[in-house]
Amino acid sequence: MQQVKAVVAKGKGLPVELVTINVPDPGPGEAVVKVQACGVCHTDLHYREGGINDDFPFLLGHEAAGVVEAVGPDVTEVAPGDFVILNWRAVCGECRACRRGDLHYCFNTHNATQRMTLEDGTELSPALGIGAFAEKTLVAAGQCTKVDPSARPAAVGLLGCGVMAGIGAAINTGAVTRGRSVAVIGCGGVGAAAIAGSALAGASPIIAVDIDPQKLAKARELGATHTVDSSQVDPVAEIKRIAAETYEGADGADVVIEAVGRPETWKQAFYARDLAGTVVLVGVPTPDMKVPDLPLIDVFGRGGALKSSWYGDCLPSRDFPMLVDLYQQGRLDLDAFVTEEIGIDDVEAAFERMHHGDVLRSVVIL
Ligand code: APR
Ligand code: ZN
Ligand code: ZN
């Protein structure tokens, strides 16, 4: 067991605290990782606001990269010294989804068996089974994905959650490719990543939609060919108009990615896709949200696919090393997602800035 500094949310809505926690030595199937960088994600804020569940105290942080310090006795997939990105879907290999080859749908992803605790022994609930606003964290070895060790931790760590969700929503779930038009509604960290992923895949046009001009400017840097301020104009009509400029007769985009997580924006996505197009919902709705007044005939009559994207339908072992290589080659600008590097005692202030929408990602450097 060892003691390290970590950011903990002790109760609903309370400011987070920097405290000392106990990290057990890794047992079978586990690894202890020395965290180098961890992004601040909306999900961390959701945990601390009690929006996920009531299992306080939470050990926050889950978009991280670091170096494996120690592994349990039977661990073979990673070794001390390996540079890894942490993932929150370590697949089991045995459930029905895994057995039929749909590993990205694994129904039984796993985390460390032992619990990290507060100094008094109170068990911590690590955010998404990771808990990486900590100098060191205990995870399942399968949560560690080895990547090129020369990559910048602050940038590639973001692949551990939001950026992977966005890129994967485009290239995995939406099957975006050359010759397809894409619209992305909501250009925060996730939507901006969906734009970067669409650009990587060669799609055109790539239409960014947001209500915040700053986000639209950033989207353009990341590969959007057109931007639409939906606080000023009807985004559905604009997407249709822009798609038809490139593809004569198009009545919308081939793939529309919803990265806000609200019924009204999902409905825009639904009506902005071309016939037989695909809608990808990567924004996460709250349980109370409903899509009102959607004629079933429109669902039938427009054909195509209405999909949701969990974690960008990624397979960390397949996607993280590939995306890190593209980053290293200069083909995927992950640095653009790192708005600021902050200290471990700055998480509460970063939540505040996130609330105001001025950042794509604040990244804690350890
Ligand atoms: N129309 C268009 N854009 C909108 C609208 C709207 N009605 N409302 C909000 N937005 C934009 C915001 O301006 C912001 O740029 O959506 C973006 C949301 O981005 P972030 O708040 O940075 O959130 P992000 O981290 O990108 O996550 C987006 O995906 O993983 C989920 O839980 C996450 O539901 C959230 C979504
Ligand atoms: Zn499984
Ligand atoms: Zn996240």
From TrEMBL:
The record places domain Alcohol dehydrogenase-like C-terminal at: 189-327
Q: Name one GO biological process term.
A: formaldehyde catabolic process
- Keywords of the record: Metal-binding, NAD, Oxidoreductase, Zinc
Organism superkingdom:
Bacteria
**Entries under Pfam families matching the protein:** ADH_N (PF08240), ADH_zinc_N (PF00107)
Cofactor entry? Zn(2+)
Establish whether keyword Transmembrane helix is in the entry.
no
Give the SUPFAM superfamilies listed for this entry. Answer: GroES-like, NAD(P)-binding Rossmann-fold domains
Q: Which PANTHER family match?
A: ALCOHOL DEHYDROGENASE (PTHR43880), ALCOHOL DEHYDROGENASE CLASS-3 (PTHR43880:SF12)
Record-given protein name: S-(Hydroxymethyl)mycothiol dehydrogenase
